[in-house]
Amino acid sequence: MAEYVADITEREALMSRSLNGDESNHKYVPRRQIPIDRYFAVYFIFLFLGIASLLPWNFFITAKTYFQYKLRNTTAPESSYSDPATLTELQLLLLSYLEISSTVSNLVCLGFTVMLVRFISLKKRVVLSLSLIILVFAATTILVNINSDEWQTGFFGVTMASAAIINGATAVMTGSVFGLVCRFPPMYTQSVMTGQAVGGTFAALASIFSLLGSGTVIESAFGYFLTATAVCTVALLAYALLYYFEFSKYYITETDENHLNAQDSEGLMSTDHLGHIEFYTTIVKKIWRQGIGVCVVFTVTLSVFPAVCSTIRSGDYQPGDPWSDKFFIPVVCYLFFNLGDWIGRPISGWIQQPSYRHQNLLFILCLFRVVLVPLIMFCDAQPRSLPVWFHNDAFPIALIIILGITNGYFGTLNMMYAPQRVPLGQAEGAGVLMSLMLTLGLALGSGLSILLIKLL
Length: 456
Hints:
Strand order of the largest sheet: 1-2
Strand content: under 5%
CATH architecture: Up-down Bundle
Structural class: mainly alpha
Distance between the termini: 63 Å
Order of helices and strands: EHEHHHHHHHHHHHHHHH
Mean pLDDT: 81
Number of strands: 2
Oligomer: single chain
CATH superfamily: MFS general substrate transporter like domains
Number of helices: 16
Helix content: 55-70%
CATH topology: Growth Hormone, Chain: A
């Protein structure tokens, strides 16, 4: 039997203040009591959906060892496929082009989501996009065992196309999930953001464990991509469960009906009368600082991660050495960044500084992160023509961890604050727009990464 609470949730309290600014005196009274999220089941479902939303991207970029093997110089000894001295042009350009194909597709598909959010149901968008991700990941898993030495350029193209399709579908799913979670209390937005960081950490650990295994690169990659397929399948089942819990059903299907009447007479909550352009224009006026802030955060991050960070060589590099040659990049670049990102995102739910009221200070701090770019550039990233300032491994480790923590913390604060500044009827639109700005940051950062690689 469902249990209920009488108190208004934090989400409703914040929404009541956002109707006419921070100091709104309007009361926001629910027509009935709100179900409890028993055992935090819905919270963990959104956490898992967050994992699935960035897991496809993370599984592609952390599979660098596999792609380097597939695109290796076939005239050189097979064991030297990751040796900087024998890297092919396709190996050098892989991550930068992977970022571009993925994020451009992501941006285009998310743009369509913004236009269609009021016309295609959220359930259809999430189910169809997740199903497409599962199918393409299954095809990628099958491709692992196909010998591509004679058609490496074709394999490169297929990889770019697969990444584009998966990330395009992920964009639709992610934008829709963010639009949905913005109808819930802010802690659920933080849950999705934390899940994304967990997904990155999971992918990094899966990559490291695959290297620790006794199997070949091909055998490890097969299990790696098969894991991604399974996780996305579970995410689809988890999403379906949202329609069975009373708590999530309340926010998905009943919130508007229960709350619109309280303010409809004053025109404060209803948005159905707004045209499509006017609907988004009113949202942008209220959340533009958060939108640009999250865009800048991810532009800075993607400009150096993973393209530059994954080329940083240990100061004690020796060919064939287990740590400096095999595990340094998977651990320092991917694992440490994602752990930092994971730490930063849940902290934003406990320590919210700058606070909701100090949005200008948050905006400035997001811009200030750009100083991390030149600092990381002057680590020992190879190949390069620029001088190296930081030879000791402690510098790239510290900088990458800081990059991850600030990415998670400032990105999540912006994503949490934005939907609190609009009426409930515009919450889904605000969530989709914020997801669009996040993706725009990924695209801009990906483009900059190619320039930075060339500047090295």
